[in-house]
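Researcher: Please translate sequence to structure tokens.
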Amino acid sequence: MTDETIVQQVLQGDRAAYRLIVERYQNVVFACARAVTGNDADAKDAAQEAFIRLYRHLAQFDPRRPLKPYLMRIAVNCSRNITGTRRPWEPLEETSEIVAPADATEPERHAAVRELVERLPQTLREVCALFYFAEHSCKEVAEILQMSESAVKVALHRARKKLLNDWRCAYE
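Model: Translation complete:
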């Protein structure tokens, strides 16, 4: 069943149909919220709020447009509202708890990379997390974050450069 069909059913009063939207997008919305907030607790709150807001304002949504970018934009906004202006991570220090790759298993290396991504400045972190972790295209990331596609590409370039530098500082 397409998103457009589900949205039409919800708008016609079928509340049970909304569960299909939640089930279809809960993982990607959580991943997006996690990328912005940096922790599971805030990400769960943001994801829940995103689905509530979508439901409340579904009548304003144009069903001819894709639902996913619209929902992801709501998730980003909810996540930003939760985190406000605080920075949830401290800059990477020499005493970091990140496991060195030479001694690490594959899951530990993935966790180390994720930790470095989470320490990026907010815009770079969001772009990087949406592109790599949530597997959105540059065009989708641009739409979600309301940036130009070229700005997304520049941010990805800057994020990769910073990640490489941080990796070298931490592990070499």
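Researcher: Any highlights?
Model: The radius of gyration is 18 Å.
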